[in-house]
Amino acid sequence: MMYEAFTPEEKEIVNTVTRFIDERVRPNVAALERAGAYPDDLVQEMKDMGLFGLAVPEEYGGLGLRYPVLAAVFEAISRGWTTLAAYINSHSTVAYAIKTYGTEEQKQKYLPGLATGEHRGSLCLTEPGCGSDLQAIRGLARDEGDHYALTASKTFVTNGAKATLLLTLVKHPKQEGETKPKISLLIVEKTFDHVVVTTTFEKTAFHLVDTVQIEMDNVKVPKAQLLGGVEGLGFRQLMDSLEIGRIAIAISAVGVAAAALSEARRYASERVTFGVTIDNHQAIQLKLANMATKLVAARLIAMEAAWMKERGGRCDMITAMAKMYASDAALEIAHEAVVVHGGAGYIQEYTVERLHREALLYTIGEGTNDINRIVISRRMKGDEEMNYLGLYA
């Protein structure tokens, strides 16, 4: 029912992506994971379908999808193979940031390439030792006339090896009279001198999504690369842009949960113990009922966040709620799917083993869930949030 507000064209986009996933992706995931080779053919098909341009306006060559439609596309992809969703998540956040805050020159220069996938966007935020405390970053952009001299060490950069554009969070040297240094976002091209990928991290899951460390040692960055052209707006720009990332993470987690429940339901209808399929046992029925309820609740809150973002205004509380709840629910559902499978669920031959590993990342990425709980708690001090929650003073 939540998709009834979509136009026929929007529904067809979601249906086209769903067919692509069902026909081209799902039957091949196990083999692709075993092969361990980057899925170039599938990525090219995603480019041809315009999926790298989900968040790029039509006037710059993208699909320019409304956020609820974008969310529906992410769920469809993640139900099949969430690795593919990871290729376009931070990419879409970069596109949103440039679309929303970039100068017209920056939009003209980068959005068409982001739409086609010629440019691949990645976020360079986290630094060693800083974790989720982004205001504690040390990456420094020194003013040297017509350019910045950028020195920064960025870690856990998703898609950093494949990316061509690195949206990089930096500080400026603190000036006299300032209580704290300004923070900005710079659009750093990977081809700039002294931008080097130094480490590739091996992960529990998402083995075909590169996660790297990038060193930027006295990189000469033209001032035209300052997002929006004004120093000191980077943190505000980033927090708004990350709302798109949280929606994408939340609904991708829903996709993982839906896949896990599908597998558990199918297995329970086939596995026979004590003369009947196990979906006739009350213990399994209770698990499936709880899993289904959590799935629906997670999808509803994720789509609510997307609709609120569509309506405009501040929505950091609901996107934090969506990311936190949906990812927690996905991990619980994936775990229960493994339990429904019994010992088979711990064997890599079964899809739920992979889904369980993948679900864990969603509780960590795009701000750990405890960080999101802090965001929610702080926002609850506002009257607007009190009204939204139906609370009284």
Automatic annotation (TrEMBL):
<dbReference type="InterPro" id="IPR037069">
    <property type="entry name" value="AcylCoA_DH/ox_N_sf"/>
</dbReference>
<dbReference type="Pfam" id="PF02771">
    <property type="entry name" value="Acyl-CoA_dh_N"/>
</dbReference>
<keyword id="KW-0285">Flavoprotein</keyword>
<keyword id="KW-0274">FAD</keyword>
<dbReference type="InterPro" id="IPR009100">
    <property type="entry name" value="AcylCoA_DH/oxidase_NM_dom_sf"/>
</dbReference>
<dbReference type="InterPro" id="IPR006091">
    <property type="entry name" value="Acyl-CoA_Oxase/DH_mid-dom"/>
</dbReference>
<dbReference type="Pfam" id="PF00441">
    <property type="entry name" value="Acyl-CoA_dh_1"/>
</dbReference>
<dbReference type="Pfam" id="PF02770">
    <property type="entry name" value="Acyl-CoA_dh_M"/>
</dbReference>
<dbReference type="InterPro" id="IPR009075">
    <property type="entry name" value="AcylCo_DH/oxidase_C"/>
</dbReference>
<comment type="similarity">
    <text>Belongs to the acyl-CoA dehydrogenase family.</text>
</comment>
<dbReference type="InterPro" id="IPR046373">
    <property type="entry name" value="Acyl-CoA_Oxase/DH_mid-dom_sf"/>
</dbReference>
<feature type="domain" description="Acyl-CoA oxidase/dehydrogenase middle">
    <location>
        <begin position="123"/>
        <end position="219"/>
    </location>
</feature>
<dbReference type="GO" id="GO:0016491">
    <property type="term" value="F:oxidoreductase activity"/>
</dbReference>
<dbReference type="InterPro" id="IPR036250">
    <property type="entry name" value="AcylCo_DH-like_C"/>
</dbReference>
<protein>
    <submittedName>
        <fullName>Acyl-CoA dehydrogenase family protein</fullName>
        <ecNumber>1.-.-.-</ecNumber>
    </submittedName>
</protein>
<feature type="domain" description="Acyl-CoA dehydrogenase/oxidase N-terminal">
    <location>
        <begin position="7"/>
        <end position="118"/>
    </location>
</feature>
<dbReference type="InterPro" id="IPR013786">
    <property type="entry name" value="AcylCoA_DH/ox_N"/>
</dbReference>
<feature type="domain" description="Acyl-CoA dehydrogenase/oxidase C-terminal">
    <location>
        <begin position="234"/>
        <end position="380"/>
    </location>
</feature>
<keyword id="KW-0560">Oxidoreductase</keyword>
